[in-house]
From TrEMBL:
Its main location: membrane. It comes from Pontibacter diazotrophicus. InterPro entries: Poly_Biosynth_Transport. Belongs to the polysaccharide synthase family. This is Lipopolysaccharide biosynthesis protein.
Amino acid sequence: MSNNLASKAVNGLKWGSASTIANAVMQIGYTSAMARLLAPEAFGLVAISSVILRFGSYFANMGLTKALIQKEELEPQHIRAAFTASFLLGLLFTAVTWLAAPLAADFFKNPDVAPIVRVMALSFLVNGMSVTSLSLLEREMRFKIISVIEIISYVISYLGAGIILAYLGFGVWSLIYATLLQATLTAIGTYATVRHSVALEFGWAHYKPLFSYGSRMSLISFLEFLSQEFGTILIGRVLGSYKLGLYNRAYMLVNLPMYMLTRTFSKVVFPSFSKIQNDIQKLGRIYLSSITLLAAIVIPACLGISVAAPELVRILLGEQWGESVPVLQVLSLAIALSFITMFAGIVCDAKAVLNVKIVLNIVFVLVIGGLFFLLRSYGLVGFAFAVLIGELVRVALYQRVMHQVLQLSYLQQISIYLPGVINGVLVALGIYLVSSLLRSAGAPVVVTFTAQLITGAVLLLVLTLLFPHRLLRTELQMMLTKMGFGGDGNSPYSRIIHKYKSQNLKEA
């Protein structure tokens, strides 16, 4: 990457990380508060409605957000074309979803779904008007302003309006209104920052390059949506909204922190990968580096969540959510793999290797569908194991794709998981020993959970910074240098970094 691109990427990581930490703290508090104010059925209804809305969202946008970011040369007419298509498609899908809401309620055998879907359908229109400006901000890698907008809109919508409405007895509608309010505030904030033309464009020549890429991206996103939401669809239809609420909250407990950890990387990586899409060797090096660093964080975190699941559920959700504990323990392993393979998908997007990705996702959807059928008799835990096995299959499929696209050997791809797996096993073992001791002693759940957090954090820091695997130490050294932490000063902080880098050079 050029110095300017690297600088933008590092700056994006810094601001994105700050936003991620802030959002993670706020969402944990929000989830805990709402779980105590609302019944599981409310979350189940929102999960059903969200699936329906996501079903339409992939076609309402037609992949134009990715197309604006990925296109090397962007003209004003392309921006107008993207806005026109997003606005009109958003308007169309708002109307279609409003009319089709009763059919969705019949499918899930729940009449309460229809009015919720109709109100949530307004998000199509709001997102259709805002997606162009948000894409332009990401293309320009202006992640500082994106982070500010996200934090402000979240505080007002969820921590403000959402919790207050739930406390006042609005029930499931408190979740709906908070979601729509955040989408509206985001739309206002992004357009106020990027005042692109809103004049409608109808010349096909300017649509063609966007839709050529975007339509395939839309299909891929839809297939990924099917693979991710099969559980929600089947549980909602077969087991009902109560069981779906249990599954949904277990899924969110592990998916949310992992999403917050990786969202910064994914936002920065896609435009960065797109700008060097023709340099296979450089792209391959950055891909391996990204996976090494990500796996070293995600795998230990997810294994730690799996061990601490009983206390995590009781602290954040409450005693009534105990049935979700075994589901959370299995999903923790599956979601770790899901977020790591995300980078292979981003490489395919950046290089426009979309036909292969379409085939891969079709295969994955078929695998997941078959596993859900075979394991359905085991209830919620069976669905969770289906997701885990499916993610293992997806890892193998993506390794073959990266072997072809980036010319990376299978040994190279497997070895980058090693630091994360070793650290993860040691972190999980440490948390397990502490948990067993405190549980057998009858310690209060708050004390046990606090000890689990401290144990996991200390072990991860020690294993990452003091005794890292050789591959991980090399990547950390490079990251510290690129972020400007050279360790050249006289402060204790600089001496620690200098010692860390010197140790790496001796072992190289």
